[in-house]
Amino acid sequence: MNTKKSMITDISAELEKEFGAPGTPERERFDEEAYAFYTAQILHDARKEAKVTQSELASRINSTKSYISRVENGDIIPSVAKFWQMISSLGMRLEVVKPIY
Description:
By secondary structure, the protein is mainly alpha-helical.
């Protein structure tokens, strides 16, 4: 039997401790890298699920295999237009919704 107590952690406090407060250059850099990683994962997983090669996706959006690879590696973040093209060409749809408060 595990007698260890689990602790609830405030992720915001942990991020601030590790990467600085929101608005600081360190935190902005972290947020940018996290966004690039997340975008890369979405596109990579969508492409694999659609059984499309990087070359084929590049051809569909009039780009290069190298560009797709750099996006999927998180080296660059595609523009909204390119992201939309990639998602659409993989048979997916991007939905923008206004939150209800």
